[in-house]
Amino acid sequence: MARERLSVVVTRRLPEPVETRLSELFDVRLRDDDTPMSRAELTAAVKDADVLVPTVTDTIDAGLLGQAGERLKLIANYGAGVDHIDVATARQRGILVSNTPGVLTDDTADMAMALIMAVVRRIPEGLAIMQKGDWEGWSPTALLGGRLAGRRLGILGMGRIGQAVARRAGAFGMQVHYHNRRRLRPEIEERFEATYWESLDQMVARMDVISINCPSTPSTFHLMNARRLKLLKPDAVIVNTSRGEVIDEHALTRMLRAGEIAGAGLDVYEHGTDINPRLRELENVVLLPHMGSATIEGRLEMGEKVLLNIKTFEDGHRPPDQVVPSML
Ligand SMILES: NC(=O)c1ccc[n+]([C@@H]2O[C@H](COP(=O)([O-])OP(=O)(O)OC[C@H]3O[C@@H](n4cnc5c(N)ncnc54)[C@H](O)[C@@H]3O)[C@@H](O)[C@H]2O)c1
Ligand SMILES: O=C(O)[C@H](O)CO
């Protein structure tokens, strides 16, 4: 007798080839329009699906998991970060959680480097002059930025993406420093010629550029708070491609306005799309709409990871990218 297909609910529109493959393999309910599900729609989804495929724009908290039906056994997240999912509660309720690490590492690290270059070399200011038709020709003194080679980069969170940023920064001649929950093995430090700082405060105070690459967890919430931001050198730049919650956005905005921090490049925000309007007014700030992993290749490979996680689970094994609370 043919095995009953898993019922899978996908909360957002995914790239077409991913949706097609999901539909071939499973009994899939796809989203008609590219908006996040309402709470009521999410509740209905967890009530009768075997597998939920959410994204970063869905809040899968204890309240929602409390409404989940007996059938819900896997939350196969389309994305690496799982801070929007209450992984501990899911585990208590016997629901597995998986994510899509690795396939978006290079893309997100590219974006971190792009932000570093954009801020340090003042690219948006140059672009604005060109777009307004205000360029009056080459000048020895206009739009002078800083040289990347020789600048000290401090990476907060030296995991997959942090190390990919280190590799790129090394190629640009930057000096790589890092702070991480655990120190890397000596051979990996050597590979990046990276200096480890046990004290985040001490690292922050000495860097020219800080790149945030740790996940958002209770222990990283406002790791860059007002006190720590004040330790930054006034000519330092901060770049965030991880999650907005790691930086106190209000304090950062205040200090950027006051000229106490030279610049910032942000892909992610503390309150999602509700961005502090004052950030938008600043010339020394480059803002992107959470597009670190936004490449065609990356988004297709994220889909392949989701498929593999669900298929492996269907075959009676643990999904290869299972996330458990102790990893967070
Ligand atoms: N902007 C984007 O589009 C985008 C894309 C992918 C991932 N992300 C974000 O980037 C994060 C990192 O992804 P990754 O694949 O590199 O994860 P990872 O797990 O490989 O690396 C995270 C690193 O942070 C370290 N860390 C955790 N808590 C820490 C703490 N309190 N202090 C210091 N270090 C700490 C971990 O030890 C680990 O080395 C994801 O969790 C996600 O939030 C954003
Ligand atoms: O964490 C990630 O994969 C990206 O931020 C999108 O979810």
Automatic annotation (TrEMBL):
<dbReference type="Pfam" id="PF00389">
    <property type="entry name" value="2-Hacid_dh"/>
</dbReference>
<dbReference type="GO" id="GO:0005829">
    <property type="term" value="C:cytosol"/>
</dbReference>
<dbReference type="GO" id="GO:0051287">
    <property type="term" value="F:NAD binding"/>
</dbReference>
<dbReference type="GO" id="GO:0030267">
    <property type="term" value="F:glyoxylate reductase (NADPH) activity"/>
</dbReference>
<feature type="domain" description="D-isomer specific 2-hydroxyacid dehydrogenase NAD-binding">
    <location>
        <begin position="113"/>
        <end position="292"/>
    </location>
</feature>
<protein>
    <submittedName>
        <fullName>Glycerate dehydrogenase</fullName>
        <ecNumber>1.1.1.29</ecNumber>
    </submittedName>
</protein>
<dbReference type="InterPro" id="IPR036291">
    <property type="entry name" value="NAD(P)-bd_dom_sf"/>
</dbReference>
<dbReference type="GO" id="GO:0008465">
    <property type="term" value="F:hydroxypyruvate reductase (NADH) activity"/>
</dbReference>
<dbReference type="Pfam" id="PF02826">
    <property type="entry name" value="2-Hacid_dh_C"/>
</dbReference>
<dbReference type="InterPro" id="IPR006140">
    <property type="entry name" value="D-isomer_DH_NAD-bd"/>
</dbReference>
<feature type="domain" description="D-isomer specific 2-hydroxyacid dehydrogenase catalytic">
    <location>
        <begin position="8"/>
        <end position="323"/>
    </location>
</feature>
<keyword id="KW-0520">NAD</keyword>
<dbReference type="InterPro" id="IPR029752">
    <property type="entry name" value="D-isomer_DH_CS1"/>
</dbReference>
<dbReference type="InterPro" id="IPR050223">
    <property type="entry name" value="D-isomer_2-hydroxyacid_DH"/>
</dbReference>
<comment type="similarity">
    <text>Belongs to the D-isomer specific 2-hydroxyacid dehydrogenase family.</text>
</comment>
<dbReference type="InterPro" id="IPR029753">
    <property type="entry name" value="D-isomer_DH_CS"/>
</dbReference>
<keyword id="KW-0560">Oxidoreductase</keyword>
<dbReference type="InterPro" id="IPR006139">
    <property type="entry name" value="D-isomer_2_OHA_DH_cat_dom"/>
</dbReference>
